[in-house]
Amino acid sequence: MTPVGPRCPDHATTGRPTRRAPVQQRAMRRASFLQTSQPVVTMALIGVNVLVYLITVAQGAGINSPGGSLFAKWALYGPAVANGDWWRLLTAAFLHGSILHIGFNMFVLYVVGSAVESFMGPMRYLALYLVSGLAGSAGALVVNPTEVTVGASGAIYGIFGALLIIEYSQTGSLAGQAMTLIAINLALSFTIPGISWGGHIGGLIGGILATLAIWRFGRGHIAYGRPGIVGIVGLVAVGVASVAVAYWKVRGYA
């Protein structure tokens, strides 16, 4: 691991360079084509979050009191999900409750998300983010289905989970920087009032499972090559399971 995130796969080994098989070279060329030097997905996600926040501020009562019709239609609320508002499981991840809330989340998303995106590539990273957002919503509903919940934290914790698996794939150990980062943030989740710790844990679990699926549970490479049937089915399974858990929890509120 480097101080700012996972090492580039091209430089993950030391000593004498190893000779790559032609198939692996072709896979790496495909991955290099899909990857970019700039965290385009991370920046796009930040842009969408900021735009949505500005809209809810304009519709609400001020910079620290977002609200209005968009906020009411997109926020995660168990009874509304039970009555057919399934989109709230994802759209809630693009709402925030205050300038401090969105400021902190977007800062963490930029710092950690940029490193993970540069390693995984934009398409895998986007899939990870969306699936983790669904898992975070499921976790929030499991803990408190009648509480209005907003924020990108569930998806960001999914990125933390991906960082943990990336570090493990490179070092063979879970006891590293990623685990320390997760432990500190989980401690804050349980000690600071008003934080949806269920959403954080749900997103973390979703991110770990999604990254394991992309990695094909140790049989592939998180960055190079195609995820294959196992990876695609695994990602879809995590998303479907998250939706199923959410609807199971809120079924009594319809």
Write structural notes for this entry.
By secondary structure, this protein is mostly helical. It has helices at 22-34, 40-59, 68-74, 78-82, 88-91, 99-120, 122-143, 153-171, 177-191, 197-214, 228-250. The longest helix is centred in the last third of the chain and has 23 residues, at 228-250. It is globular, with a radius of gyration of 19 Å. It starts with 21 loop residues before the first helix and ends with a helix. The model is unreliable at 1-35 (pLDDT under 50).
Question: Helix and strand layout, with pairings?
Answer:
Elements: H1 22-34, H2 40-59, H3 68-74, H4 78-82, H5 88-91, H6 99-120, H7 122-143, H8 153-171, H9 177-191, H10 197-214, H11 228-250
Helix pairs in contact: 2-3, 2-6, 6-7, 6-8, 7-8, 7-10, 7-11, 8-9, 8-10, 10-11
Provide tags for this entry.
254 residues; mainly alpha; globular; disordered N terminus
Decide which structural class fits the backbone: mainly alpha
Radius of gyration: 19 Å
**Poorly predicted sequence stretches spanning 5 or more consecutive residues:** 1-35
* End-to-end gap: 48 Å
What fraction strand?
under 5%
Shape designation: globular
Number of helices: 11
Largest sheet: none
| E-strand count | 0
Return the string of H and E elements.
Answer: HHHHHHHHHHH
Q: What is the helical fraction, as a range of percent? A: 55-70%
Average pLDDT across residues? 88
